[in-house]
What does this fold into?
Amino acid sequence: MRRFSYALFLITGLFILFLSAGPVLASHGGKSASQAVAIEGGDTINISGIISDNHGEPVNEARVLISINGKEIDEQHTAHSGKYVSTFMMEKDQVQTARIHIEGRKASFKTQVLEFTGSDLAQKGDHYYMQENMTLQRTLGPAFWISTLVFVIAYALISFELLHRTIAAMLGAALMLAISYTIGTLNPEYRIFSFESAISSIDMNVVFLLMGMMIIVGILKNTGVFQWCAYISYKLAKGKVFVLSVILMIFTAVTSAFLDNVTTMLLLTGVAIEICISLSINPLYLLIPLVLASNIGGTATLIGDPPNIMIGSYVGLTFMDFVVALVWVCIVSMIALFLTTKVVWGKDYAAAKVDNVTEYVKVLKEKYKITDPTLLTYGMVVLGFVVMLFLSHGYWHMEVSIAALLGASVFFTIALVTEKVELLELIEKDIEWPTLMFFIFLFIIVGAVESTGLLALIADWILNLSGGNFYIAMALILWVSAIMSAFVDNIPFTATMLPIVAFLSAEIPGSENTLWWALALGACFGGNGTMIGASANVVTMGIAESKGYKISFIGFMKTAFPYMIISVAIAHVWLVIVRPA
It folds into this structure.
């Protein structure tokens, strides 16, 4: 049965990722321009433009209807860039007096109509040209309310564990698509988004990064390195479990600043579980502080967390800009995490203390050894190469997932050739297919509410409520980003906020880059609020669950959400006092 479940997830994933590749590519090009009808001695007309929303973002899959003298002659759909192109022909000398009507429409947007005459077109010989851009205003139509309702229901199912999170996310994504292609076909106002848009909303960089690192970690487990790390960590802590947790949290935060925090947790989760098993304490008591530390540490640098990568690319901020502006507030937040950990789990740590530390260290040294130094050597070389590509991926203009997949494929090949691992066992047990599928369906759900305007509505609210005041704008950006990122994936939310923050930074005197730091701190720190707030949270808790250590959504939130509030409050005070440029 277990073998069948993994196979089902694998088949479903491959079906979504590869079978739909053709439609995705086609959607990026939009509907092909209509072929000009051959009219003897006629004039050719070319009308093109870009349709965008009130944020200046392109609107894809919008219908563009073109009529001449009251007769519809062409229909186009905008490409991913929002562009449309229409080419047709008219009778000679009929263009100048023609009445041209362009209509742009899409669900969750108000229909926009442009009217002009043929005399407004530019002419070159028997060719006429015009570029007409449109701005569609969002409206709260049926598609908006349906997608929002499905979104809330899906998150409720996940939050209260009425369904497994993967099944709940799958149900939400499938329901939105089904409504779009049934009711939405009968009435376009109910069309939430297309299958092509759903697939394009999946961040495959995240999915492939996770898959690659799962493979690398799965092979490394066969070397005994994680058990050896457990022994070294305990030896350094000298039997004091709280000190041990602090050491691991510092290591996790520093590593997450230079590696993706998901990668860091993939590497360290196995270590933490081994340590806790040896001490007879619940691994969740150590895993939760570690995953919180990974999100804090990832905030400190450009490459530590996806929102930072997006912000740095949009604004042109460098690696050192992030370090100078954010490293100290991250250090203060880490100190707060140490204190929180002591308060919440201090008694459990004290109960796990081993009296005869020296003897126990000897036992661990004998028990936890490197079992395959040759495979470990190969793994360290491959992992070092992958880390080097992570650190320099900006120079190569390469997604981090490419580095992870390259390292995974090379390491996998070495392990198979040397007969160190079994193919089916690694695929079934070490690649967390339910976790990967959860991410895929979650991206689709968030893409749906982004398409219908829920995230844009929140962004507009911030813009209007701030009224041009720096401190109000900074507080709204920080806290709304934090609360939203706790429940919604911070990648699409950050993407929606980029033009809003850019506008506020330009309009509010003296704000410089401070509003960008508010967005970075809110999006990254906010990910600590819930179990689904950050990729690292989902991956870590997924691995723990596969090992038999499950925590509920509310159980995680009881500890993590209060600390998230504390860390965001620290960030707020920091931004007000320091106002880093």
